[in-house]
Specification:
The structure holds 3 protein chains of 3 kinds.
Chain A (H helix, E strand, L loop, with lengths): L6 H9 L5 H24 L4 H23 L7 H26 L2
Chain B lengths: L16 H5 L4 H29 L10 H20 L2 H15 L7 H20 L18 H4 L4 H28 L12 H33 L12 H35 L6 H14 L15 H13 L1 H15 L8 H24 L1 H7 L3 H31 L1 E2 L2 H28 L13 H31 L1 E2 L47
Helix pairs in contact in B: 2-3, 2-4, 2-5, 2-17, 3-5, 4-7, 4-8, 4-9, 4-15, 5-7, 7-8, 8-9, 8-10, 9-10, 9-12, 9-13, 9-15, 10-12, 13-15, 13-16, 15-16, 16-17
Chain C lengths: L17 H32 L1 H8 L4 H26 L3 H31 L7 H4 L3 H36 L9 H25 L3
Helix pairs in contact in C: 1-2, 1-6, 1-7, 2-6, 3-4, 3-7, 4-6, 6-7
Classes of the chains: A mainly alpha, B mainly alpha, C mainly alpha.
């Protein structure tokens, strides 16, 4: 059955992009920088308690997007993956927002 | 393996028990699910009959209050997690999805087998509470905290069983999504898939994205019981309403895991027996997705009396009404399909019509419960019990048996006795409505659910209901007996297409060959409901 | 898959389909995200209810160890991403080396985690211990969530490490190569998910004071 090459495999090999080592390295550098920023904001910006949480979550989200886009190859994948991830994120955010509304209005 | 297996059907391919329980053939796995599901269903039915018997007269008839609590919990756990959540997708989805897509199996055949094994392990765990520990849980199938944290019965094992069964459900959903994306035969676009495949697609997304939440919640219950932390127990710092939130974030979408595949089955049955194409294909297809999506945001309507904030209750109540829109779209399209069709009355059609009738009662009572004000009155009464049995059993259960009668000749290549099937249906239908309609009335009168006893004023509806349960049992036994008899003695040689079905599965042999097709599947130009339409069995 | 009747079903479930495997992996990652998502909702609710206790408890955690572990995971994410590049370019040996580096980094992570946990347990902060039982309710919830969430995360690290070991083994045997590297890609996706979850766990537990 191996010699019957599936047409999916063929088009996958045509479009598959190989990310360079250099790109991975730059991605890591950006992620480390963001980690540095978030730690500094937290440790030295302690008087701005809520702001520091918002900043920390914002930076974490940027880091997650960077990891997904470069390391997880979303940049080179079919668009459908990005849409599906967006769907999952929307669902999860909706769960948290609705739950938060419930608790904040007690 | 390519040659010499010409058109040997999947029953003949290999023999013996091991060729079944380790089979990666989607058709065999579908049947494994069917046999195991029906076994657990009968256990659940027996427990239900015991409950009804206890409620025949006020006071104690049969069992103690504590035993009654355990019986209704086990009835719920078995019927929800072992029967109705897997039911249509695991049996008919497994069997027919690849055939309807024009391929020979699901994307991950071995994963598919693994799902069945996980299901069996979960089932054994759930039933083991009958024997081990301090008896089955007595919390109700919802395992509400803090009682589930404090009770001495074997909640931990029941909860772990539900966790394991959730895994099985996730893997089946994952498999179906990838299969639908990757294995449609060339030329079959998404909008040329049969509606059953569409409903499975929507269902699979719910299975995939909602089940993990209950998985982790149930693990937290186990951790709380084991370590004594106050996660959901208010006396040690937790919030029991948070448990209800997490539980219903899964369990409300799970209602659509149970209902959507049934909608898909009905969308297949009606065109075949109206002998015309489906009306409003796109509307039905997209309304499945709409139901799946809206269904995620309305979990709070199970918690109107829990003490959550008024703002949230209003939001949930409004959102709940939105789900009625796509559901009504489906019903209108089904009725429009029947309109001016050449109706061929056969057992599967009877089940489909009963489905529409009963599901509408279930749906309308659902609107009553979704409205904030009426729900306060009716919450935790028998009205709720009647409502969800109309949706789950009157809806999904009837669709399941309709599907079984519809695809029976395709699966086994034999035909059951149609006349007996019609009689069995009639008894079943009467019994069902006798059993559950009085519950709606008892609920309106104010009878609370989950009690093993009641005041004398509720005697009449309870009596009718219990008698109805016996009628239902007779109808069920006759129906299953007829199907089993057909399995051994039914007429052979039903041909490819005994009903004049107009979708792809009727173009292949009955039973299907190992590779599903004996000739290249062709996709009609005008959508999936466009194959030649010649009924062979007619009155 | 060929049939005796002489036709071939083009899209067979028994064909090797790299795209399907990858899609399956992504879908599995979605379920993992929502598994942790449920815990994040619990965290959010209890933080809203016990704001001060959560801030106070987070002082107990060691920011230095947390930061080092974050860096370890980020570097390991890069090495596994590079190992995919290496196998795509046909350089199996480099790919194995990079995977082995990832494996070692996962070990480093677990060792640091071990020291962190054991110091907390030493102070009696583990759920069920006597000192824990006397904590104020908010702090008790914080430490329960800390152990439950980082514990579940550590379990995922272990699973990921086993998966990477399998990839190394199969690359060595030559079953994974420049024409068939789905396994490496999927192990990479899984490992990145473990990283993603840590990216949120780190600020939510260590940096909220």
């Amino acid at each position: 059955m191996e010699n019957h090459k599936n047409h999916h495999n063929d088009d996958q090999h045509e479009t598959h992009h190989i990310a360079s080592y250099k790109e991975h390295f730059s991605t890591l550098a950006a992620l480390l920088l963001l980690t540095f920023v978030t730690v500094v904001v937290s440790v030295f910006g302690a008087n701005l308690a809520t702001l520091s949480v918002a900043t920390a979550l914002l930076i974490a989200t940027i880091k997650v997007i960077v990891v997904a886009y470069y390391f997880m190859h979303l940049k080179y994948e079919k668009k459908i993956y990005s849409w599906l991830i967006l769907l999952v994120v929307v669902l999860f955010v909706a769960f948290t927002v609705i739950t938060a509304i419930e608790y904040l209005n007690r | 393996m390519a040659t010499a297996t010409a058109n040997i059907n999947f029953f003949q391919a290999r023999k013996g028990l091991f060729s079944w329980i380790f089979s990666v053939d989607h058709k065999r796995i579908g049947l494994l699910y069917l046999y195991s599901l029906m076994t657990f269903f009968l256990v659940g039915v027996t427990l239900g009959l015991l409950m009804r018997y206890e409620l025949l007269n006020p006071g104690k008839d049969l069992v103690e209050a504590q035993t009654y609590n355990q019986i209704f919990t086990l009835h719920g756990v078995i019927m929800i997690f072992l029967f109705i959540i897997p039911s249509i997708p695991a049996v008919f989805g497994n069997f027919f999805l690849p055939i309807m897509l024009g391929t020979d199996d699901v994307s991950f055949p071995r994963l598919n087998l693994l799902s069945w094994w996980i299901y069996i392990i979960g089932a054994i765990m759930a039933l083991s509470t009958l024997v081990f520990g301090d008896g089955p849980a007595d919390t109700g199938w919802t395992f509400y905290a803090p009682y589930s944290v404090n009770t001495t019965t074997n909640v931990s094992m029941s909860v772990l069983a539900a966790f394991v069964l959730g895994f099985s459900s996730i893997l089946t959903g994952l498999n179906f999504i990838v299969t639908i994306h990757r294995l449609r035969t060339p030329g079959m676009t998404f909008l040329k898939m049969p509606l059953f495949a569409w409903s499975l697609y929507a269902t699979s997304w719910i299975q995939l994205l909602a089940t993990p939440i209950i998985g982790i919640t149930l693990l937290m219950i186990v951790a709380e019981r084991a370590l004594g932390v106050g996660l959901f127990d208010p006396s040690i710092g937790g919030d029991p309403i948070l448990y209800q939130h997490l539980f219903w974030i899964y369990s409300h979408p799970a209602v659509y895991i149970m209902a959507l595949p049934a909608f898909g089955v009905i969308s297949e049955l009606l065109p075949t027996f109206s002998q015309r194409t489906i009306f409003g294909y796109k509307a039905i297809a997209f309304s499945s997705l709409a139901i799946a999506f809206v269904g995620y945001f309305i979990w709070g309507h199970h918690m109107f009396t829990s003490g959550m904030s008024g703002t949230a209750r209003i939001i949930f109540s409004i959102l709940t009404f939105f789900v009625a829109i796509p559901t009504a779209i489906k019903v209108f399209n089904w009725v429009a399909t029947l309109y001016k069709g050449s109706i061929n009355v056969q057992p599967p059609l009877l089940y489909a019509l009963a489905f529409i009738f009963q599901f509408m009662i279930g749906g309308f009572t659902g609107l009553i419960l979704g409205a904030l004000a009426t729900d306060i009155h009716l919450h935790d009464t028998y009205f709720v019990v009647g409502h969800f049995h109309y949706v789950m059993f009157g809806g999904t259960g009837f669709a399941f048996f309709g599907a079984l009668h519809y695809w029976y000749p395709k699966i086994w290549g034999r035909m059951y006795n149609v006349k007996v099937a019609n009689i069995a249906f009639t008894i079943f239908f009467i019994g069902f409505n006798m059993l559950y309609f009085p519950m709606l009335i008892a609920g309106l009168m104010g009878m609370p659910r989950r009690y093993y006893d009641y005041l004398p004023e509720f005697h009449l509806p309870n009596m009718i209901s219990t008698y109805g349960s016996w009628v239902l049992a007779v109808g069920l036994l006759l129906m299953l007996g007829n199907l089993i008899a057909g399995f051994y003695k039914g007429k052979r040689g039903v041909g490819r297409n005994p009903w004049g079905g107009i979708t792809l599965e009727w173009q292949t042999l009955s039973p299907p060959p190992v590779q599903n097709f004996d000739r290249m599947p062709e996709i009609p130009k005008n959508g999936p409901y466009d194959y030649e339409n010649k009924p062979i069995i007619k009155e | 898959m060929e049939h005796a009747t002489g036709f071939i079903l083009p899209n067979s479930g028994h064909n090797r389909d790299a795209e399907a495997s990858k899609m399956g992996m992504w879908l599995f990652l979605f379920t993992e995200l929502l598994l942790f998502g449920g815990l994040f909702i619990v965290y959010m609710v209890y933080r809203l209810m016990n704001h001060d206790a959560f801030l106070l408890s987070s002082f107990e955690l060691n920011v230095v160890m947390g930061t080092v572990n974050t860096i370890v995971l980020l570097v390991s994410s890069m090495t596994i991403a590079m190992s995919i590049t290496a196998i795509q370019k046909g350089n199996s040996i480099l790919s194995i080396k990079l995977l082995a580096t990832t494996l070692i980094l996962s070990l480093v992570f677990m060792i640091i985690k071990y020291f962190e946990w054991s110091s907390k347990i030493h102070h009696g902060l583990f759920p069920g211990m006597e000192y824990y039982g006397n904590l104020p309710k908010g702090e008790a919830l914080f430490f329960f969530l800390y152990f439950f969430m980082t514990g579940l995360h550590a379990l995922h690290i272990i699973i990921g490490a086993v998966l990477i070991a399998v990839v190394i083994y199969r690359t060595k045997k030559g079953e994974v190569h420049s024409e068939n590297y789905t396994l490496t890609e999927n192990a990479g996706l899984y490992w990145h998910l473990v990283d993603l979850i840590w990216i949120y766990l780190f600020p939510l537990f260590y940096l909220i004071h």
